[in-house]
Design a protein that fits this description.
358 residues; alpha+beta; Jelly Rolls; five-stranded antiparallel sheet; 9 helices
Length: 358
Amino acid sequence: MDLSGYRIVITQVNHCLCFQPQTAFNCVDRSILMPADTRFCMGFAEGLIPAMAACVHSAEDVMEFECTGGFSGCGGQMSYQIEKTGLPYIKANETAVKKQLAAISKLLLNLPMFKSFDQTSMTRLLSHFQLEHIHDLGFKSFKYRDIIISKGQPGSHLYIIVAGKVAVVDDQDNVITYLCNGEVFGEMSLISGKPVGATVKAVSPTTVFRLDSKDFKSILSRFPSLQTYFTTLLTRRLAQTNAERSMDMSAGMAGSLAEMPPEEVLQTLHVNVKSGVLTLKLTRGEAFIYFHNGDMIHARYGIHKGLDAITEIVSSRAGKFNFTPKLPPEAEMMKPLGNFMGILMNALKDMDEKEDGA
């Protein structure tokens, strides 16, 4: 959107920390020319985009707007007008642009993601975006309780927290973890191509630096240090997930078969060499499978016992499960029903044959 020939004038100010009345900014091409010492407000920038679009498509010479600062969590208020000045195209002042770039570079170089960058590599990164103004780089602000990304939606952006705090929550809105300044989220879905795995919401006024999928993949291929950063990050998070799952199972494990199908539950208990009783509440009643050091030693579901019971359990796709790490006394004399993977593969094969026959 070409903004040449427009001017922004601050008309009224009420507790605004960034602007003074009668302050004016000229627009050139896609840039807003601000003095180097001007404090930039992300809430103002959020509202300015639709305001400028309205002016460009309007026949009015002057249009008035208000900024409440709500996007950035600011409590101030400010009014401004956008004027059509008829000024010819003015080339942006190189000194001002350089100072803006220096400020952005300093901000990003302080983030852990860019710890290995020097000024030269950061300048090369910023040149990739053909940057003319700070807003072009994808800074976005969120209010308290705003949903930033939702579980199940396609991954579209990498998010880096510049200021504030977010919570990663499960389907019941229980907090899985908190993330704050300098930490990132959204990378798993971009790298794997799978939908977003958890909902992330702001728990305080939060500003993030966003990279869309295309830009993320482009800079990842151009900067090996970023590849190393994300490889380390993913390894750490996977290790943390495995450790948390192991801790959960030491005290018991519960869930829904809609989210974790029976075969995955059985494999999890087998791989982690667990001993205890898996209880499943299924459509035709309760089912039980005893585990000893990861092997299945007993199974019962209605009239079915042993391998037949496991086949019936694996074919279930609705219900809940609960694992208790304690075996009853009679389990001491029980032997494994067979090779775990062989049992599971046969159960899955039987399930497929039933579905094909139906």
